[in-house]
Amino acid sequence: MAPSPIVAGQLFSKQTQALFYNYKPLPVQRMLDFDFLCGRITPSVAGVINPGSDGFQKLFFGQEEIAIPVHGSIPSACKAHPKADVLINFASFRSAFASSMDALKQPTIRVVAIIAEGVPEQDTKKLIAYARANNKVILGPATVGGVQAGAFKIGDTAGTLENIIACKLYRPGSVGFVSKSGGMSNEMFNVCARVTDGIFEGIAIGGDAFPGSTLSDHCLRYNSIPAVKLIVVLGEIGGQDEYSLVEALKAGKIQKPVVAWVSGTCATLFKSEVQFGHAGAKSGGEEESAQAKNAALKAAGAIVPTSFEGLEDAVRTAYQALVEEGTVTPAQEVEPPIVPEDLKNAIKAGKVRAPTHIVSTICDDRGEEPTYAGVPMSTIIEEGFSMGDVLSLLWFKRSLPKYCTRFIEMCIMLCADHGPCVSGAHNTIVTARAGKDLVSCLVAGLLTIGPRFGGAIDDAARYFKDAADKGLKPFEFVEGMKKKGIRVPGIGHRIKSRDNRDKRVELLQQYARANFPSTRYMDYAVTVETYTLTKAANLVLNVDGCIGSLFLDLLVSCAMFTQHEIDEIVDIGYLNGLFVLARSIGFIGHTFDQKRLKQPLYRHPWEDVLYTNVESSAQPR
Amino acid sequence: MARKKIREYDSKRLLKEHMKRLAGVELPMNAAQVTAETDWSQLARDNPWLTKSRLVVKPDMLFGKRGKSGLVGLNLDLEGVEEFVAQRLGKSVEVSGTRGPVTHFIVEPFVPHDDEYYLSITSQRLGSDVRFSDAGGVEIEENWDKVKHVFVPSDSPLTPDLMAPLIATLPLEIHDVMQAFLAAAFAVYTDLDFSLLEMNPFTLVAGQPFPLDLRGELDDTAQFKDFQKWGDIEFPLPFGRTMSLAEHHIHSLDEKTGASLKLTILNPKGRIWTMVAGGGASVIYTDTVGDLGYAHELGNYAEYSGAPSEDETLKYARTLVDCATADPDPRARALIVGGGIANFTDVAATFNGIIKAFREKQEQIKAAHMRIFVRRGGPNYKTGLQKMKELGTEIGVPIEVYGPEASMTGICKKAIDFIKEADAKVSK
Questions:
Q1: Residue A278 known to be catalytic
Q2: Does B153 contact A129 at a Cβ distance shorter than 8 Å?
Q3: Given A122, A126, A159, which is nearest B219 (Cβ)?
Q4: Complex confidence, ipTM
């Protein structure tokens, strides 16, 4: 079969610009580093295409940070960058076909490199048919890409900067290289740098049975590029591709010396047919064997060593001959600029250190599974941890005894809601009715929590703790507070009284008496209540005071906290956290309720507002 | 893209189901599969035709020339089929130089016929070859000059114009039915991502095409879009390829990961073992040991690539070391941990798993008098190589370590020289 009419001559130049489909930071940065090393003036990546998104990606061009535009589709990217004629496709094997076809159809795109491995054969064939009919070039699929030394590099080709420098890829040499394997092409860049003046261009066509462009396509191209003096080919067992090269050699279409080796001579060692690592590398008929292809290439005039080991020598000898006959003037050495090292790599290599900006001690998401205070997720689920157990891990960084976590859950359940009329729920409802989203409704409610609403638990705990620890008699404490002009927090209720106790308080007290080793602080609070009840019938211990005092008992009696830790917990406002957490449940419920009921925008009635001002108040009606 | 042969039973199942869906062609075919697990009475209940017609039974093992090898039971009743299978199930047969047990049979109605047609569709780079002959059957190779050929470009159906040369010489009265059948077969081939579909032969029953013998290959990379059309499909190993426990273990690891992990044992008593990164490099290392004249000592072919995790590399290396150190004797052995210069794989990270395995298995390695030869380049290779060197000192196993400055396959020669020298010392 005749070789496909691939675009003759160079695919790339020092001005080539590419679009990068499906953004991957590392390969793009590697391309830009290569550009800088080659002394390119413009970065080789003109834009990035990430389906459905736009904006910019920040990357380095040498020492300088640059913003590379991101586009949501291939046509929009091509419109914005009409000079970019290469598309590097990092799509997965599932979407590689559609995106590659889309790219081939853009008039500005000339070359599409498909990185994905596992693109279905028929899909690739459709791409090949389209590319042939429209004079476009496909590299891959299943390839790392290729490189034109000193000019343009695709994605991850040629690996690290260190390797690129070792292979002298920052300036053009005289060898045109093509192989199936991406890994082996990098190896051969090194070989060529050792025994010649280096690569002019190196392409990996990919390991599939039907690559988008073939070994012979690129050899023919190299033959027409004046700077290429020597062609080196690394073929592979399986397929017929090498025979197109044999035909081209026989027909005299390639005049430059070709050094070739086809790997896979070992297939004869296998008892049944064998599939090697590459999809196309499969033992088939005699004709597809490495031995037959090597023999055919040799017969057609290629320089074929007797083993891969001999390839380096064969390239050296062929190159030396070209130098001696004056065909090759070895490339001038140039000193490439130094590309600044990435902080991440330098740290990894132990060369520099950098301080962290954030510290976290309650959890870790870096391992096999996330952990809360060191307890892995699987333990939490398999051992039936409760909500309270999880809260104790994340808030207190330890597993509290069951009676404690059960108590925490009781507090959350009892404080989860307190009707639609309290200020927080009211705010949530008004916000929901204004058509706002869940988070807005929730925080509108939460923002009312503070000294007057819901904030009493913390204060109650603080004052009860202080008084009890100092051994103040209840009347000393209450009267002392009165002198300071502070209402005793945790005491008093709008409706409840001596003869009509708060059920919630009773339940918590019962539970604590039955389960806590000690209820010293609650007992103290009750003595305070006994005293305040002598003053007024509604000065009962309310739910805030009860939770506050019992929480102190919990912290002390479980013997898992130092005095300092307990002080800190009370100080930081853990108990307020308990209320915020609990009431969020109610606020979210109110939000859903209003939305379900499709309640219209709330407007407060005029009749319910006393309209007044300073002047009119001077003249009462 | 990777082409995988499927069983005739599956080929027939797919052809029947999808010819109907795609072209409205109803094939009167029936087929049942028989393995060691088959419950015969259940099979007869599920396939009532088994007790109503005379039957054909043949091995369904991805090899051809079954008639010529005397492996086809013709014109039997179900009892006869059961007896035929009982005599052959699990028995080893040799076909075209490959030996292996027969584990799967296909049972079909016996169709007496005169005409034998040949049809094959094969995938090529720029389209598909369609070959047709009215002289099909076991003598097809002898009658190859009668086979007609057309080429269908990618993305084109098999149109009446394109197929005209194939059927031009057929009697006029069967033109239409052949044309419809060939187009339908081509449509199934395309829609289901077959890379090969061959009928040798098919015949006409009551004027309707009827495939007797069917061979198919699917492109398994199309699984993500075709899995519903394919249904419960099996990709059997090539005939004669049996897997050792170790190979099976690696095969199942390979199926579970996005990376590639391959192992083939060539000679369990071999003394040169390889563990090579990269699809291209692994073949070349295996070649080189052979090219240097030591194929007879080569234990295996092994390839890992596509950035396997540390845990996967650990499991892989463990299995490989177990194989390489099984049956130690006083003679020296070598393990080649090779690879090219990686483009983006973190060498230090992949080496971590290997190092762990070596540390775990150090006693085995020492008992087998094994020397380890390492060569690798790529991202972070210095750290990786350094760790390997340190491991050698730590566990007291000689590990020679080379980087990208050394030739890739140089360690093959070093490994062979090591074995040669050790053998020479022993014989002195």
A1: yes
A2: yes
A3: A122
A4: 0.93
